[in-house]
Structures are given as C-alpha cells and as structure tokens.
Amino acid sequence: xxxxxxxxxxxxxxxxxxxxxxxxxxxxxxxxxxxxxxxxxxxxxxxxxxxxxxxxxxxxxxxxxxxxxxxxxxxxxxxxxxxxxxxxxxxxxxxxxxxxxxxxxxxxxxxxxxxxxxxxxxxxxxxxxxxxxxxxxxxxxxxxxxxxxxxxxxxxxxxxxxxxxxxxxxxxxxxxxxxxxxxxxxxxxxxxxxxxxxxxxxxxxxxxxxxxxxxxxxxxxxxxxxxxxxxxxxxxxxxxxxxxxxxxxxxxxxxxxxxxxxxxxxxxxxxxxxxxxxxxxxxxxxxxxxxxxxxxxxxxxxxxxxxxxxxxxxxxxxxxxxxxxxxxxxxxxxxxxxxxxxxxxxxxxxxxxxxxxxxxxxxxxxxxxxx
Length: 371
Hints:
Blueprint: E1 5-9, H1 13-25, E2 29-34, E3 38-39, H2 45-49, E4 57-58, H3 59-63, E5 69-72, E6 75-79, E7 84-87, E8 94-95, E9 98-101, E10 106-107, H4 115-118, E11 119-120, H5 125-135, E12 140-144, H6 148-160, E13 165-169, H7 180-193, E14 196-198, E15 203-207, E16 210-213, E17 218-220, E18 223-226, E19 230-231, H8 235-239, E20 249-250, E21 263-265, E22 270-271, H9 284-302, E23 316-320, E24 326-331, E25 337-343, H10 344-363
Parallel strand pairs: 1-2, 1-9, 2-5, 9-21, 11-18, 12-13, 12-18, 13-14, 20-22
Antiparallel strand pairs: 3-4, 6-7, 7-8, 10-19, 15-16, 16-17, 23-24, 24-25
C-alpha cells in the first residue's frame, strides 16, 4: 500500500518542526523542501549584520534519524487540482496527499519609493551579510521601523559599532506596543547607546544619502536599513488557496486551509487566529506552537479522529538591546502589555535562553508536543 505523502514547504522555525513531528507521529512519507541546506536562525540576523559570527546548522544534521527526506530546491508553483508542487530544478513535479505551507515571510521594500534600490534588510542571511559588508565603509546608518526588528537592529549596531552614528526612524511612538515602564527602559537604553530616535516620522522615499520624511525633512545616512513591513510568497494565492489581503493563507482553528482541506498553513505565511478572532502576529513564538498543533490535527485526521482547535495565549515579548541589556515585556493573553517588565543583563540572558530554546526545539521538536 502506498504511504500517505506529506510535503512541507519551508524549513524555518515552523516548517522543520512540522516535518519532524509528522514523521514521528504518523506512518506517512514526509518530504521537506527548502531553498537552503542549512537552518537560518532568523531571530539572530541582526547580530550577523552587526558583525557577529553565527554558526550554520545543516538541516540534514537536524533531520538525521527521522526518516524525513530533504529536497534542496525552490518551490515555484503549486497545482492544487493535481496536488503537486513544481520545483525549479526538478524535471517532474513533487506529488502530495497533504501539503503544509510554511514558506515564511520576507522584507517588503516595494511600498516606498527607492527602498528596494537603496535600503538593506535583515530578512535573510544573504541580506544581513550584505548589510554587514556595507557598514564597513559607513559612518551613519538609519534604521527605518520601530518594531521589534528595528529596535534590536539599532541597538545591536550601536553596541557593536560604536563609531557608527545610528538613527532610528519610526512612524509611530518608539515602543508604542510596550508599557510605560518598558518604554522608559527602551529610551534609557537608546540614550546610553547613542541611538538618535525620530518618531512620528513617516518615510516617503529612500535615497542613497538617507530618507525623506512626509514633512519634507531629510534624515541623512549613508546606509539605510529597512525593517518595517513584511510580505509573504505569492504561491498560495497563485494556487487558488484562500488568502487574505496580504497573501497569507487563511486557515481554520486546526491550521487547515479554509478552501483546500488537504492543505495546512503554519508560520508567517498563514493567517492563524486565537479563539475570538485575534490574528497571531508573525513570530517564531507563535509559529512553533501552531506548527505542533497542525501536526496533531493531521495525525488525528489520518487516524479518523476529530482534532482539537489551536489554543494559544501570549506570555511576553522578548527584546534584545545588544548583548548586555534587554527588555522582557510581560503581556496578557491577547498580547496587551502589562506594567511588569524585566530589564538589564538578566533580561538579555532571558532572551538568549529563549533564542537557544527555539533552536533546541528544531533538534528535539517533541519538546513542543504539549503546546
């Protein structure tokens, strides 16, 4: 009898967990497709851009002994009717019975004039290395975006490259999603690091000499880092899967496509929701538990059982402010900030433990089975 075929697209934080847990929990033939043969610790890419070396983790080492087949190739299309995936280097399409869509996200530099030409990003290892090389000749850098990626990037650059003048430009209030205590610590950290903050500043264009603001001001910089806005690959929409306005796959409470029951979506490329309708934010902290729940749903359905819905609550937001300072913002179940925070070196160690734990979960995904 031909085994059930599960194909997982993407070997990021969510996709790899799906592949390994599916091989463990089911009798299916599991194939993992990824464009690289090494795992990317995406939450450390701002460190790579700042000049810190990162260890490459071969995916085959992570998969050893699991029975998962790794295909290093680019998925270029999905034929939903035939249930196949087109690969850039393969003569024949890859068939599936169950498809898990975990292609992640990438930086969106198309929304502002000049960003795609003049701005760097930290969305992938190649981009982070290009930024690192560019910064060797730079004296002033403007980081656009006041979200967690922008905050961590600005702090890391300022700490590791003290000769650089670092500016952070954000359209909102710096740390607007944090509590008052969290914002105060963030402001103190940036003052200590010498980061110049320009908030409530909308960027309308990026040039080779900095950025232009909506009020006509020019923020000078010989390097611009774009950390605001992410987009997802177009494959789900092109395949005819139900997607939202940003192209993220629409999934139900078991992470299954609302339009194609043989397809599941996890990670940044899927729009998953908490009970009550709140959409989960893009983060490995949401993607990994969702991935584990998707595997349980797949194995339950293969066994003829009705799966349970995803239940998820937020606990905290972990922000590194260089290697020796950090901010842990504790939150309610719906991600609303509480006044409770952890700061300083202890917070930096806490964040480092979380990051290491995320990598350990790739080695031992059974740790997440209770999520």
